[in-house]
């Protein structure tokens, strides 16, 4: 029984820093309005090493995930599956658009970076 409890606790700790991604633009905006948050829209691809680094390493950093959860609804769109909403342009991936709850772009971060650098960029988002 003790081993089972230890195993379950370990699994919970592993997934504690998992960000919850939205995959629908309208639902993300609605959620942002309800929670009085901005939307962080990530445009990426499964074949992109830098995109995967952001999702698998940077977004699992406790400080980064805590900050994001407090301030943003995260919308993840795939370049091969999803059409970027009109009015948004990207020079490359990953790109992070920061939107108010009316879908207006307020800021943008292009490219990935280490967790501490990305966190500083997040804190400077307008």
From TrEMBL:
InterPro entries: Thioredoxin-like_sf. GO terms for biological process: cell redox homeostasis. It comes from the Bacteria. Signal peptide: none annotated. Pfam families: Thioredoxin_7 (PF13899). GO terms for molecular function: protein-disulfide reductase activity. PANTHER family: THIOL:DISULFIDE INTERCHANGE PROTEIN DSBD (PTHR32234). This is Thioredoxin family protein. It comes from Sulfurimonas autotrophica (strain ATCC BAA-671 / DSM 16294 / JCM 11897 / OK10). The lineage of its organism: Bacteria, Pseudomonadati, Campylobacterota, Epsilonproteobacteria, Campylobacterales.
């Amino acid at each position: 029984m003790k081993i089972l409890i230890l195993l379950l606790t370990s699994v919970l700790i592993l997934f504690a820093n998992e960000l919850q991604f939205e995959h629908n633009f309208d639902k993300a905006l609605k959620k942002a309005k309800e929670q009085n948050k901005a939307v962080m829209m990530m445009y990426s691809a499964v074949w992109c090493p830098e995109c995967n680094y952001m999702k698998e390493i940077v977004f699992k950093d406790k400080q980064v995930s805590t900050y994001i959860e407090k301030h943003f609804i995260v919308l993840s769109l795939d370049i091969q599956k999803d059409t970027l909403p009109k009015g948004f342009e990207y020079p490359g991936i990953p790109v992070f658009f920061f939107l108010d709850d009316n879908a207006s772009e307020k800021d943008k971060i292009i490219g990935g970076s280490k967790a501490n650098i990305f966190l500083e960029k997040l804190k400077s988002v307008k």
